[in-house]
Amino acid sequence: MKETSLLTEGDINFSASRQQWYAIQDAATLAVLEEDSDHFLHQSLSTPCLDVITSCEGIYISNLQGKRYMDFHGNNVHQLGYRNAYVLEKVKAQMDVLPFSPRRYTNPVAIEFARKLTGCLPAELHRVLFAPGGTSAVGMALKLARVVTGKQKVVSLQDSFHGASLDAIEAGGEEQFKKHLGTFHNASINIPPPTFYRNNNRFDDIRYAEYLDEVLHNHPDIGAFIAETIRNTDVQIPSKAYWKKVREICSKHNVLLILDEIPIAFGRTGKMFAFEHYGIVPDILCLGKGMGGAVVPFAGIVTKDEFNIAADVSLGHYTHEKSPLGAAAGLAVLEYMEHNDLLEKVKEDEVFMRMKLKEMKERYKLIGDVRGVGLLWGIELVKDRITKEKAIKEAEQVMYRCLENGLSFKVSQGNVLQLCPPLIITRTELRSALEIIEEAIAFIQLSSIA
Ligand SMILES: Cc1ncc(COP(=O)(O)O)c(C=O)c1O
Predict the structure, then answer these.
(1) 82 in contact with ligand 1, CB cutoff 6 A
(2) C-alpha distances in angstroms, 137 versus 131, 133, 266, 303, 370?
(3) What residue owns the CA closest to ligand 1's atom 16?
(4) Which pLDDT belongs to residue 186?
(5) Quick check: 420 and 268 in contact, CB under 8 A?
(6) Domain residue ranges in the chain
(7) Is the pLDDT of residue 359 over 70?
(8) Is domain 85-339 annotated with CATH 3.30.70.930?
(9) Whole-structure pTM value
(10) Residue having the nearest C-alpha atom to atom 1 of ligand 1
(11) 16-82+342-449: CATH topology
(12) Ligand 1 centre from 289 Cα, in Å?
């Protein structure tokens, strides 16, 4: 089944640009891609694959031919880079002692990590439950919200992604993920996300919060509002007023505020957790991805003591629930961040990125907007700055040119270049990535005029 409509998330795996990309790959790579295609189930957005990678180090992934890509995507697991020596050492040491902990038993490293993690959070967020992946963490949060509130429905934002399982796609707002999967149980309502650029830069996203108030008022069976604090994919950064208001509204309606920080916690935004930028505290916080240090799949939720009321419900029940390896990786992540003052570094990088991308926007009319925080940035490409028509083909071409030149990232919403480098990136590496992007934008802008 060929897909031509997958313009929302990721690159277009069957487009002309993808075919041109394959045309410049070597025979050995193409043979492995073919084998991959023969063995694995084909699925939307992930297949066919782009390239074959065989090693990774720091900010780089390397392919069969030894070509290195700076990885500005990394599925958001690589805050500390790949094969971070400190993380590897801690995980390897744990592997030699207790690599697995069967459910119904506990282990010291899981407890130590829970203590350390909650020590980084506001005092109310004290109760932890781990899971092997982010989607499962979201599922646990949704279950807990049902138990706590006795209400089944959930509100989320349009185009939001909270994982790809049936419960998570039902809760989320990306129609793409619901396609061909039959009926859902009407358990979620999607409301518009707070956005600025496509909302004529009106900095009054408070009205999006007011709309939530209205929805909650009209649907007393809603028990939770789930959202990313800052949307990772197309980099949407709500105002402080928005989140303050949302927090107030959720409390007023006895609706739990679930913040999904699976891709952006652990320093991505310049704070350990993104909600710290807003002076609010969620009822449930979902974590994952980078928590496993780009080594171990590991995720979880953190919530309040007062919600520790589901002792007779299987909230998680996962085989790898208290993974000692995951906990060792998570501990190492927090320790490494502390020892290396990584949050301060990210704040400095943010200033640099803001300046450089603003200058780039002034030079190229293909760029409609640049926005970001910490080391999470979006460059939105448009055909026309007035109409803001999305430059979808151009975004894809820019992406492939960057790939050719050794920089990997994802395109979101069809036209937003999403830049999510490892937080350990050096200034020299950051500069050289920006040079690759600028060269590609200049080239594609020129070719689209010609
Ligand atoms: C915001 C958000 N929530 C949840 C998930 C699901 O995490 P996982 O793929 O680890 O199940 C993702 C994954 O991309 C995500 O971006």
Answers:
(1) no
(2) 6, 6, 16, 12, 31
(3) 263
(4) 76
(5) yes
(6) 16-82+342-449, 85-339
(7) yes
(8) no
(9) 0.96
(10) 162
(11) Aspartate Aminotransferase, domain 1 (3.90.1150)
(12) 7
